[in-house]
Design goal:
With 108 residues, the protein is mostly helical. 80% of the residues lie in helices and 0% in strands.
């Protein structure tokens, strides 16, 4: 379970970090190499996600979507300095519950 969580977090940081670098390049006029590094990070996100042990692509990516939401709230708080409000945390908690059901529900 720890390996699964680690991979989701690593993939999320690659995706959010890559998107953020491209944002900075295109929207805030940073140099082209910021966008290139962002593209590399986004490609790494796609590779990292394939190391999950689950056999269903759709289930992995659907569950990752919930993790992505939580990480995005934390990124906004830590990097953009936008403090999440109660509804951000409630929504993130609902996503975390959904991810847990999807990944670890007993299946026969």
């Amino acid at each position: 379970m720890l390996y699964t969580v680690f991979l989701f977090i690593l993939a999320g940081l690659a995706e959010i970090g890559g998107g953020y670098l491209i944002w900075l390049w295109l929207r805030e006029g940073r140099p082209l190499f910021w966008g290139i590094f962002g593209g590399i990070a986004l490609a790494m996100y796609g590779v990292i996600a394939t190391f999950q042990s689950f056999s269903s692509f759709g289930r992995v990516y659907a569950a990752y979507g919930g993790v992505f939401i939580i990480l995005s709230v934390l990124w906004g708080w830590g990097v953009d300095r936008k403090t999440p409000d109660l509804y951000d945390w409630v929504g993130a908690g609902i996503c975390l519950a959904g991810v847990s059901v999807m990944l670890w529900a007993p299946r026969g």
